[in-house]
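Working notes for the structural subgroup meeting. M.R. asked for a predicted model of this chain before we commit to crystallization trials. I am recording the input and output together here so anyone reviewing the notebook later can reproduce the run.

Input as submitted:
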Amino acid sequence: MPSMNSNIGEIGRGFAAFLSPPPEGVVRFTVGQPDFRTPQPVVDTAKQALDDGLHGYTRSQGTEEVCQAVADYLMKYDLDVDANDVVVSPGCKQALLYAMMSCLNPGDEVLLFAPAWPSYDGMLKLIGAVPVHVPVNRENYHPDMDVSRAATLPKQKGDCD
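Returned structure, recorded in token form:
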């Protein structure tokens, strides 16, 4: 039987804590839902796609039409991106994971402004990178750039905020 990725053990079981209510007086700022409804044109287009029988899988990077639409949209901002270089992901976190997997190697260090999104640690550890937490300014939750510069590491390959 094949063995599991040895980095899996580094991730931990953090989601168990989210299933129980927080202690009294504690407000969790970790997991959230949008405070708006899905825009009606998106809902209508999704319904139409289902009615048209578009139930199958697409290319892993997204349909050619969607990738071209993204490239066209970026052109409005003078960003000349070829549609073949566009990758559509199911969400920002997935896009970050793809980027991390593409750019980081085991042992690379990445600064995370803390508090950070809960899954960033696990994502970095899964690919063998090392998350290094740098606290933000408690008064406004903005990064303190002097603290960030002081935390720069020899194996640092990036920072996430």
